[in-house]
């Protein structure tokens, strides 16, 4: 039985999580890696835009914005 993992879309503002893996491919995957969203990296959800898209994340010393669709392809480890 495959365990389902949470994604960045499951975080609420102020919550932190560690990236587990990407489910994206090709250019999107490479862009996410270039932004520093690699397995093992801790991210914090800063806020969501008024219509929930995009989301702002803090990754190490940088702030980045992602579409919800992209954030949904990044699985996380998150302790509640």
Automatic annotation (TrEMBL):
Matching Pfam families: FeoA
Domain Ferrous iron transporter FeoA-like: 6-78
Transmembrane feature ranges: none
SUPFAM superfamilies on file: C-terminal domain of transcriptional repressors
Keywords: Iron
Entry-linked InterPro entries: Fe-transptr_FeoA-like, FeoA, FeoA_core_dom, Transcriptional_repressor_C
Listed GO MF terms: transition metal ion binding
Protein name: Ferrous iron transport protein A
Organism from which the protein derives: Marinobacterium stanieri
